[in-house]
Amino acid sequence: EVRLVESGGGLVQPGGSLRLSCAASGFTFSSYWMSWVRQAPGKGLEWVANIRQDGSEKYSVDSVKGRFTISRDNAKNSLYLQMNSLRAEDTAVYYCARDVNDFWSGKWIDYWGQGTLVTVSS
Amino acid sequence: QTVVTQEPSLTVSPGGTVTLTCASTTGAVTSNYYPSWFQQKPGQAPRALIYTTSNRHSWTPARFSGSLLGGKAALTLSGVQPEDEADYYCLLYYGGARVFGGGTKLTVL
After folding, report:
1. Cα–Cα distance between A13 and A36 in angstroms, integer?
2. Is residue B85 classed as helix, strand or coil in its secondary structure?
């Protein structure tokens, strides 16, 4: 059974930093791209960033470029999101998701974690 | 900035059929955008329904189908059930990055 468990959310002041983690199990983590997706309270989904299997390729939405860094540790089956210079508008539930990004198979997101809430407020 | 547009809300009767669409400000949505669809119910994580335009995941009921329609990606629900009341999101691929649509709130009434 594929399982994704996020952790590291909480309350942080504007301008502060937070590191989210996602523990993966039930599949060969090192064989998949991975994504972070967020959802502000009462709003829609926003794709944040993704990372290639070996970490050599990354993409992110413009609003987090230069502030958020996605990374992974395949030996620990873990995905991370380092969030710096946090703003009130970054307040959201952050989901970790398995990402398929393959020339032959196609491109999609299938499995999701339950999310971790990040609140940026003074 | 790329924007992906969906109907904000739709209403359908139980047993009826409804089609949700997904458009891109960059032009017609084609299979090269690898459109996918997700369902989200209140308090739950999203659940994947359709990938690469029209493929159902193993857990997706057959009443959900995906297609391309008039330059947009489309999700059709046939024989709608009360439990299909939820928010639905499309996701498009833009050369590595991805963009979600704003979501459609589907009411079954």
Report:
1. 21
2. coil
Q: Find the CB nearest A109 among B55, B87, B91.
A: B91
Digit-coded pLDDT (tens) for A44-60 = 999 999 999 999 999 99
Contact B57 A110 (CB under 8 A): yes
Give the closest-approach CA distance of A118 to chain B in angstroms.
Answer: 15
Q: What's the pLDDT at A103? A: 80
**What does each C-alpha distance from B76 to B53, B60, B69, B94 come to in angstroms?**
12, 13, 11, 23
Using a CB–CB cut-off of 8 Å, the residues of B that contact A are 1, 34, 36, 38, 40, 45-48, 51-52, 55, 57, 87, 89, 91, 93, 96-103
SS percent in chain B: helix, strand, coil, step 5: 5, 55, 40
Query: A41 in helix, strand or coil?
Result: coil
* pLDDT 10s digits, B57-87: 999 999 999 999 999 999 999 999 999 999 9
Q: Do A60 and B97 touch (CB under 8 A)?
A: yes
Intervals of chain A under pLDDT 50: none
Alpha-carbon gap: A106 to the closest alpha carbon of chain B (Å): 6
Residue B109 has pLDDT above 90, yes or no: yes
